[in-house]
Amino acid sequence: MPTRQDAYYLLSLGCAKNTVDSDSMAALLDESGMRIVDDPGQAGVLIVNTCGFIASARGESIGALRELAANKEPGQLLIAAGCLSQRYGHDLPAQVPGLDGVIGTRRWMDIVDLVRRLRTRTHPRPIYHLPEEAVTVGSDERGVSRVAIQGPSAYLKIADGCRRPCAFCAIPAIKGTAVSRPADRILNEARLLRDGGAQEIILIAQDTSDYGHDLGQNDGLAHLLDQLVAAVPDVPWIRIMYAYPGYVTERLIDTMAARAQIVPYLDIPLQHAHRQTLLRMRRPANIDWVYRTLDTMRSAMPDLAIRTTFIVGYPGETDEEFQTLLDFVTDMQFDRVGCFTYSHESGTPSADLPDRVGEAVKEYRRDELMRTQQPISLAKNQALVGRVLPVLVEGYGEAVDEDGNPTGDVISVGRSYRDAPEIDGYVLIEGELPVGGLVPVRVTGAMVYDLIASPDLAPPTVIQPGTILGPQG
């Protein structure tokens, strides 16, 4: 009969890229004969895959570790993994008394070895496994798939690390430089996801548009997409996340426009719109390129949904620079916008910049930017009322009224091609629809971020992912 020592509890914090790493560690632990449990009290090994990207994420990670440490029973092992561990690993035991092991992002594949070392150690001191070498792809992955399945969707990591010089970002210090995964492994994993019933494959990396650069390829992402479409022609949706400004090429645009499986959606974090701010950020500062490229993309894909993110309150950001950003958001009419206040990160080039912006000003600017975006988002959604969209159904539940009281009605929750998981909006549909199904719905109402719809009673025979049909369906 399995014992507590054979069980592990794994809490994954942060982004989808971290989720993939967590699932990969879980696969290795399962292979070793362990089993995952949902209750920390039933586990012999407690693991938190931390996020260390910004201060708020670090606080959440340390809080989770401290909570587990406070309730840890004799014989249980507590391990900190992930980004926070990689960057601040040697400082963690002082902040989390009771921490037994620390393993970083660069050697997540050694998690089983670390557990074994902890079980045989002859001293109570923490064991650190934080090699400087950032070899995390290819044969060193120990044959583990680099995917994370979430319902009918799955994240597929195509590269790790980053070589971009962004002054505010610690990712290169945490992950190392960009290393692309071999295409054959990516394609094999896509086939396994297809065989497992995945309706959506989401390609992720720190910078997907940089895929293949280290392999000597030009337009590596576009070539990979061509191979992916051929390998899994029956997966309805393929989505691209985390493209870098200046590296969305004509070849990539043509590939997206020509391949019906590739949803007309692109996540391209621009971070700002004022040239001087972008130069201080060490980001691409050619705003004309943004205008030209988005115009080209929208011409090639009229139903294109663009998501971007911005940072406000960066050191030296003046009122004039911020106003330029607001004007840019109004002018560009993005479908989805995320906004973050600047987080001071020691060890990054931006940490030494003068003219820091006060916290109150940062918060005001974030709120003002989102107030500027909200009517744009609402108008985009209102334009869809009366149209038919294919929606990927993720679940259903009982509807509630404005006071939170159950109404007795059932609603299904799904996403259109315009919505990436966890970060974008939802489509709320009348009635109970099959979870995991890709079904046509008619949009009947619009909110700032979400749509209201009903099942389409007379759907067309085939609906491609980016298709938006007229009022008559």
Please tell me about this protein's structure.
With 473 residues, this protein is of the alpha/beta class. The protein has three domains: 4-129, Rossmann fold, CATH 3.40.50; 144-382, pyruvate-formate lyase- activating enzyme; 388-455, Beta Barrel (OB fold (Dihydrolipoamide Acetyltransferase, E2P)), CATH 2.40.50. The chain contains 13 helices and 20 strands. The protein has helices at residues 16-31, 55-70, 83-88, 92-95, 111-120, 171-175, 183-195, 220-231, 250-258, 275-281, 287-300, 319-332, 359-382; strands at residues 7-12, 35-36, 45-50, 77-82, 101-103, 127-129, 147-150, 153-157, 159-160, 179-180, 200-204, 237-240, 262-267, 305-312, 336-341, 388-400, 406-415, 427-430, 438-446, 451-455. Strand 14 (305-312), helix 12 (319-332) and strand 15 (336-341) form a beta-alpha-beta unit. The relative contact order is 0.08.
Quick tags:
single chain; 473 residues; alpha/beta; Rossmann fold; pyruvate-formate lyase- activating enzyme; OB fold (Dihydrolipoamide Acetyltransferase, E2P); 3 domains; 7-stranded mixed sheet; 6-stranded parallel sheet; 20 strands; disordered C terminus
Short description:
The chain is of the alpha/beta class and 473 residues long.
State which percent range the strand residues make up: 15-25%
Overall strand count: 20
Structural class: alpha/beta
- As for the CATH topology of the largest domain, it is pyruvate-formate lyase- activating enzyme
Q: Termini distance?
A: 58 Å
**What is the CATH superfamily classification of the largest domain?**
tm_1862 like domain
Using only CA atoms, what is the Rg?
A: 23 Å
Give the CATH level 1 class of the largest domain.
Alpha Beta
Q: Please work out how many helical segments DSSP would assign.
A: 13
